[in-house]
Amino acid sequence: MRVLVDTGSAPWLLAAAAAATSLVLVARRQPKTPPRYGDAYITLMSNEAKHLLSVPPIQTATLYERVDVPALKARTAAIVAQNPWLLGRLAYGPANTLELQYETSPSNVSEAFVEVHCPLPADAPEEQVAAWLAHAATVGNGHACLSSTRGQVFQVVAAHLTNGSMAIVVALCHVIGDGSTYYRLYKMLDVHEAPAALTPVRAFEDTTASFGALTPHTAPATRTLFVLRRALVNAISYSYRKLLFGSLPQIAEYRVDAKALAAIKAAHVPRKDAPYLSTNDIVASAFFEMTSTALGLMAINLRDRLRLPPSAVGNYVACFVYTRGDYLNPADVRASYHDKTAPQVKMSSEPFPTSLFSAGHFSVMTNWCSFYHHLVLDENVLPIAHMPVIVRGVLPFDATGLLYHRSPSDVRLVTRLATTPLSTPSFLQRV
Q: What's this model's pTM, rounded to 2 decimal places?
């Protein structure tokens, strides 16, 4: 029998065989992207993928004398039925973009609600109870959610306290949304509100240009040796204290004196760029000063500046930056962001600290007051108190400040400090 060889096609066959072999070898070396979870996904924004994976979840606890637990569980189920993405999972997609993958008809609705019992004694200090509540939910930071196939991104926890009262903890992975998104979901638990579907699709994927145009000073101020040194010092200090002494960063809480603040506002002389002073302007100025801040960051909701509706889901927040010359006068703080359609205005000629040897601290200030909602779960049972629940993990900052409403008439500042403040203004009363 003769073997017929087509000499004309031999080079093409050899080349095709070589190419196929190369493709097989490359394919073997390339890790396969696992199939997406569920039947829908959202591509998250670049700022969420790059900057928020290590940030602790947003959590609050609201205290009640009693709670109708079955009713709360049913309301939670109604919220996630309208917003199934809250039961999704964080994962990297085929293009290596961070995605929230989910089922449009979820089978794991029960995972959004948990009922627990606090083991602490009835007379345990509020600080200890808050520390326990910080870990009552199974929601972690972005890295924790990515590393687990069951990583929760949203959860409501009904915690029975030993003194007979109850704490309702609501937790949201920060990669999924900011304070505005968090409180829109939180508000849906109210008996007077109806669960509604929010649109989780982001307005854009790459936030570099849009956010950068509104925060022209932030990148030059934060991409410096000064910030790198402070971040390293705080990380090393955190690990050293935790491992050797079992101590965590100091949490301090201050009540804002409403009368004293009203007097400061009344004494303000209006000017074109600062027609009035807000509580945030006054407290932010004081917080940066009392923590010896050389570079201060203040979180700013960009939705108005980006022409987005308040209901836009995601992290549409960026930080404006302040030197001592920018924040000492509360009126200058107001003027720096008063125009809600414009970028930050730098109010002094003082340069940002950039050197490895620049003195002072690196701090951040956040304000939740405008998001506050007096959450009524039952017509006959009103909330006793509302508070942030802070996970004391490692952060790059020397100090963090959070301004919030504990009740409609009680405004407080909770701080996490690496060092003791040198002085405290009279309108902040230590609790």
A: 0.89
